[in-house]
Amino acid sequence: MRGQARQDTAPEMALRRLLHARGKRYRVGWPVPGLARRKLDIAFTRIRVGVNVHGCFWHGCPIHATWPAANATWWRQKIEANKARDKATRAHLEDVGWTLVEVWEHEVPEDALARVLAALETASRT
């Protein structure tokens, strides 16, 4: 599992390319304010919008999640812990005034782009 990419995954890169092509500039791997060892995949720091691109397996996608048969208890605990951490991160960011857009790896990049652009538009108005 060490060989699995933690950043610069194909879905993340596709979204970043679309954002860049639209003239949007962002930070990559930005630390979550106030939470050690947690990062945003994409951050628009001036308007406080963050984007996390979640892998379906690692974050327990409600549509595509799979549960390994080998060492099943450990994997279930691991994935449930990831989901709890995602929820806590989302709540923390909202508490400190950030908007978080969560994108699943199975999403069509253009659909994810539309959601991110909508969040940017909403945040820039406030």
In words, what does this structure look like?
It is globular, with a radius of gyration of 15 Å. Helix 1 (10-21) packs across helix 3. The termini are far apart. The chain is built from three helices and four strands. The protein has a single domain, classed as VSR Endonuclease (Endonuclease, Chain A, 3-Layer(aba) Sandwich). It has helices at 10-21, 72-95, 109-125; strands at 27-31, 39-44, 49-54, 99-104. It is an alpha+beta fold and 126 residues long. The model has no long low-confidence stretch (mean pLDDT 93). Strand 2 (39-44) and strand 3 (49-54) form a beta hairpin. The chain is 42% helix and 18% strand.
Number of helices: 3
What would the average pLDDT be, to the nearest integer? 93
CATH superfamily: VSR Endonuclease
Please identify the structural class as seen in this structure: alpha+beta
Helix content bin: 40-55%
Strand order of the largest sheet: 1-2-3-4
Q: Which CATH-level-2 architecture? A: 3-Layer(aba) Sandwich
SSE topology sketch:
Elements (H helix, E strand, L loop, with lengths): L9 H12 L5 E5 L7 E6 L4 E6 L17 H24 L3 E6 L4 H17 L1
Parallel strand pairs: 3-4
Antiparallel strand pairs: 1-2, 2-3
Helix pairs in contact: 1-3
